[in-house]
């Protein structure tokens, strides 16, 4: 708006660095929210925003939460630009912020008694619970996982398990955490939908194996992880059918379930 533009110019003219940083941050959040990625990337490169970015990296999301650094009438006070970009799957903006070294901090456990958590809880317990949810919304985003994780499938498995734990412990937003967990399973399915050949499928299912050429009972660790994390939605059944088609049943791996070896097909 015209008023905000004049406020920005006034802050620049008077040397009010703190206000200038605040205005830049609000402008970046607005640009992200409106999908103006070119403007967002221009702000990210501004020298004063670089200072904001460095402060966020040093102090984490508490820097926003405790400092009231941006206008809460527009965005929750704990929301960082990277969190907002991740929640909205703004891939280019997420990449630009990651390249600046920004990350999304994992929330502390629900029963954490550290000084930061105590301060935030005493200030406003519900708002603190909301800040935890906003962090997990960002961490669960396809853009953030795709661009920040070396192993998106494993990240989804581990984060999904964590979300279910939080849903059981957190007295607020349990339904939302369950929805986020379901979304992660669906994301893995979409990733696997992009597999076009047995070679690609084998590479994915045996991603942590040293040898991708020979099928042995120790291969296909991704299947073992799916079983470990109870990923029923990511049971791989459609993909296993395709994978098995090229091999005899005697060649298929055996897995231990309850101390008993069972063939791969029996798990699906």
Q: What can you see in these coordinates?
A:
This protein has about 270 residues and is an all-alpha fold. It has two domains: about 1-150, no CATH class; about 200-265, no CATH class. The protein is about 60% helix and about 5% strand. The chain has 15 helices and two strands. The protein has helices spanning about 1-15, 15-35, 35-45, 45-60, 60-65, 80-85, 90-100, 115-125, 125-140, 140-150, 150-170, 175-195, 200-205, 220-230, 235-245, and strands spanning about 255, 260-265. It has a two-stranded antiparallel ribbon with strand order 1-2. β1 and β2 form a beta hairpin. α7 (about 90-100) packs across α10 (about 140-150). The longest helix has 20 residues, at about 175-195. The chain is globular, with a radius of gyration of 23 Å. The N and C termini lie far apart (about 60 Å).
């Amino acid at each position: 708006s015209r008023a905000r533009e004049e406020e920005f110019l006034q802050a620049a003219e008077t040397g009010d660095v703190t206000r200038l940083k605040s205005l830049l941050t609000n402008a970046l959040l607005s640009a992200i929210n409106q999908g103006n990625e070119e403007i967002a990337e221009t702000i990210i490169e501004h020298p004063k925003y670089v200072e904001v970015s460095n402060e966020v990296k040093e102090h984490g999301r508490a820097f926003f939460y405790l400092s009231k650094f941006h206008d809460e009438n527009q965005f929750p006070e704990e929301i960082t630009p990277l969190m907002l970009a991740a929640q909205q799957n703004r891939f280019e903006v997420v990449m630009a912020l990651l390249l600046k070294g920004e990350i999304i901090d994992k929330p502390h456990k629900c029963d954490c008694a550290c000084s930061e958590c105590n301060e935030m809880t005493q200030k406003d317990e519900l708002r603190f619970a909301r800040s935890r949810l906003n962090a997990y919304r960002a961490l669960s985003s396809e853009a953030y996982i795709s661009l920040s994780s070396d192993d998106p499938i494993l990240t989804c498995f581990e984060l999904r398990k964590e979300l279910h734990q939080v849903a059981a412990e957190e007295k607020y937003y349990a339904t939302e955490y369950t929805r986020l967990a379901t979304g992660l399973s669906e994301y893995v399915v979409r990733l696997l939908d992009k597999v076009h050949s047995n070679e690609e499928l084998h590479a994915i299912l045996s991603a942590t194996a040293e040898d991708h050429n020979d099928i042995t009972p120790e291969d296909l660790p991704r299947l073992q992880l799916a079983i470990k994390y109870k990923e029923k939605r990511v049971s791989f059944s459609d993909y296993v059918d395709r994978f098995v088609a090229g091999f005899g049943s005697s060649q298929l791996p055996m897995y231990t379930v309850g101390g008993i070896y069972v063939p791969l097909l029996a798990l699906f």
